[in-house]
Structures are given as C-alpha cells and as structure tokens.
Amino acid sequence: MSEDCAALHPCPWAKGEDYLAYHDNEWGVPSYDRNHLFEKLCLEGQQAGLSWITVLRKRDHYRRCFHHFVPESVARMRDSTLEKCLTDTGLIRNRLKIYAIRTNARALLTLEQQGTDFVEFLWQFVGGKPLINRFTGMADVPAQTEAARAMSKALKKAGFTFVGPTICYAFMQSMGLVNDHLTSCPQHPDNQQ
C-alpha cells in the first residue's frame, strides 16, 4: 500500500454512489469470462453518444431482456422480440444499437465456430495480460490507442458492430485489459501492494 494513503482519492469521474461503486468494484478489474466480456462489449456499444451512467442504470434490465448476455441465446432472438425491445423504456431505444447485440452474438459464435477463442481473441491486443498505465491526470488518458484501433478493426472484420476504437478502448479500460486508474487512485495497482 502507498505510504501516503491520505493523498489517495478515486478517479475524478467516479462521482455519485452508482459511479463510485462501479469504479471501486468493477472498472479495471481483469475479466476472462466470455459472457461477461460479451456483455460489456455490447453495453459499451449501447453507450455510444451517451454517458455511461445511463447504461449502468439500465444494465440489469438489459441482462433480463438479453438472456444475461449468453451469446447462444441472444443469437436466437427473433426480430419480433427485438422490435418489442424498441418500445421498452428500460432500454436505450435505438434500432441499430438493439439489433447490434444480436449481430454481435452471431459474430462471436461464428468466430468460435472457426476455432477462435473469444477471450483469447480480445486479450491478444494487450499481449494476454493487463497493461498498467500510470496516468496522473484525466487529460493524460487517451480516448483510444493503437491497440484499441487494432481491436476495432479485427472485430469489425469479424462482423461485430458498434465497436469503433473509442468504444473498444472504453471496453478495454472497463474489463481490465488496460488499467487507467490514475496513480492517485487507491484502485491503481501500485497502491494495492
């Protein structure tokens, strides 16, 4: 643990109870769980143009509507079911975003049918282990990186949608592929020892 614990404080964006709980317990924690990674990739796409808190507060409802993001179940969803989702106020009612979840489930299954492990596919962009950054201020944190651009390109080539480089970098941050907690944050790995 850092010697000066009193000087540590959460990343500046972690304001409010919902954000702080997400920041402290989820954001930046490495995940190697296929369905969890799939869920988060889809939810980051739902966020496009919105704040993460909007999606975070709707996340449980998304899980109920989209079979807890089990790709096999999501891939079988009918158009009629997705159309009902477009009238559900508990979801972000954007046709392209709603249909993208099913598209991405099908793309994931196609990758796997071709012999690609989805978890390994995603983690390859950081060499299979978390990349620990040491940013001191929010202005230092990039919106995207070369690794995120490479992930975006590979996902699009595989048939995924709503996976631009900024979305991919947000996904990488949230799933712990990269750790972008500021060095002054108690959640940064340097302050966990």
* CATH architecture assignment: Orthogonal Bundle
Task: Report the CATH C-level class.
Answer: Mainly Alpha
Number of helices: 9
CATH topology: Endonuclease III, domain 1
Strand order of the largest sheet: 1-2
In whole angstroms, the N-to-C terminal distance is 4 Å
- Low confidence ranges: none
Task: Report the count of strand segments.
Answer: 2
- Kindly state the percentage of residues in helix: 40-55%
Structural class: mainly alpha
Shape summary: globular
Oligomer: single chain
Quote the average pLDDT. 95
> How many structural domains does the protein architecture include?
1
Sequence-ordered SSE layout with sheet pairings:
Layout: H1 17-25, H2 34-47, H3 52-65, H4 71-75, H5 79-85, H6 95-113, H7 118-123, E1 131-132, H8 146-157, H9 165-174, E2 178-179
Parallel strand pairs: 1-2
Helix pairs in contact: 2-3, 2-6, 2-9, 8-9
Structure description:
This protein has 193 residues and is mostly helical. It has a single domain (5-191), classed as Endonuclease III, domain 1. It is built from nine helices and two strands, in the order αααααααβααβ. The protein has helices at 17-25, 34-47, 52-65, 71-75, 79-85, 95-113, 118-123, 146-157, 165-174; strands at 131-132, 178-179. A two-stranded parallel sheet has the order 1-2. Helix 2 packs across helix 3, helix 2 (34-47) packs antiparallel against helix 6 (95-113) and helix 2 (34-47) packs across helix 9. It is globular. It starts with 16 loop residues before the first helix and ends in a 14-residue tail after the last strand.
